[in-house]
Design goal:
The protein has about 300 residues and is α/β, with parallel strands linked by helices. It contains 9 helices and 13 strands. A hairpin with a 5-residue loop joins strand 5 and strand 6. The longest helix is centred in the last third of the chain and has 16 residues. The structure holds 2'-monophosphoadenosine-5'-diphosphate (ATR). 2'-monophosphoadenosine-5'-diphosphate binds next to helix 5.
């Protein structure tokens, strides 16, 4: 790994905007990635209130930042605040990554990483979504579950659950069971899948007790707080029906859902892989280089678990 370059007058900036943002692990692992790539870049976290988001993006554009990540509660809000949207942002209707671009001498738009700041006059902001791909990559790499042909129970149909369900359907999942406290949200996701990905069968309910699933995915916020109940109804579903269990929560590293799934014999993973892969993809979009996964992962583990 290269040594981190000293900050000087040529240091370029990436940032995450969120509210709250102080617990974000992104600065720790993005700076490790940038250092490993030998870039004279830094990645900072800014607490940006939703009502200031538009001006904060505009400020970054004018100051020729390389790019941004957007986290809670900005991913949907930013959708209408950018000059262009990549296919990924259009498909998942949310933006978690922004790349600032300028035209080269032939008029082709390229990331600001390719220009010295003093050469840049015109800048546009382009929105991307790297969250959806990260879900599928993480369940595949961390659990060995391939979405294509899989049967999956998704717990939660909020922002994260909806993106997971749509992405898994887009990736060829055979059957999705959708469960949410507010049933209407699960039904809305079911409707969207029926329109966009009709080859995937969806059921708004638990599988019956005689049916197994390849994966059960927790996309609810249950488990974030100590004392939270399990994110499913134990009278209607048992973890022994699942080959693998994924908890999108990574802090705490082990939720009651995670522990119970492991103790039941499921392959288990938490949301750390998702966080890592969405960030790695963002760094690739900004830098045009393959992300150095190992140093990024090491910094992420160190930041979250102190190891
Ligand atoms: P995110 O963007 O992280 O998905 P969200 O959109 O607020 O955040 O979604 C939170 C998810 O956790 C939802 O599925 C939510 O259920 P509702 O849609 O019914 O609100 C679920 N959730 C949160 N608290 C819950 C609780 N006490 N019991 C059951 N589900 C809960």
């Amino acid at each position: 790994m290269s040594d981190r370059q000293e900050i000087d007058a040529r240091t370029r900036i990436c940032a995450v905007y969120g509210d709250p943002v102080k617990h974000s692990a992104s600065p720790a692992f993005q700076n490790a990635g940038m250092a490993a790539l030998g870039l004279n870049w830094r990645y900072l976290a800014f607490n940006v209130r939703p009502q200031d988001l538009k001006e904060a993006i505009e400020g970054a554009r004018r100051m020729k930042f390389i790019g941004l990540n957007l986290t809670v509660p900005h991913k949907l809000l930013a959708y209408s605040m950018l000059n262009e949207l990549d296919e990924s942002a259009k498909t998942w209707q949310a933006v978690n990554t922004v790349r600032f671009e300028a035209p080269d001498s032939t008029g082709q738009w390229k990331g600001l990483a390719e220009f010295a700041p003093e050469e840049i006059t015109d800048v546009r902001a382009v929105g991307y979504n790297t969250d959806a791909d990260a879900i599928v990559r993480s369940i595949e790499e961390d659990l060995g579950v391939v979405a294509q042909g899989a049967t999956i129970l998704i717990l939660g149909a909020g922002g994260a659950g909806q993106t997971a369900a749509l992405k898994l359907a887009a990736s060829g999942a055979k059957k999705l069971y959708l469960v949410n406290r507010t049933i209407e949200k699960a039904e809305a996701v079911q409707k969207e899948i029926a329109t966009r990905y009709p080859d995937t069968e969806t059921v708004v309910n638990y599988p019956d007790r005689a049916s197994n699933v390849d994966l059960v995915l927790n996309a609810t916020s249950l488990g974030l707080r100590a004392g939270d109940p399990l994110p499913f109804d134990s009278n209607k579903f048992s973890l022994s029906q699942a080959g693998a269990a994924y908890d999108m929560i990574y802090r705490p590293a082990e939720t009651p859902f995670f522990t119970k799934a492991r103790d039941t014999g499921c392959a288990t993973a938490n949301g750390l892989g998702m966080l890592l892969y969405q960030g790695a993809k963002a760094l690739e979009i900004w830098s045009g280089k393959p992300a150095p996964i190992e140093p990024m992962k090491k910094a992420l583990l160190n930041n979250i678990y102190g190891k």
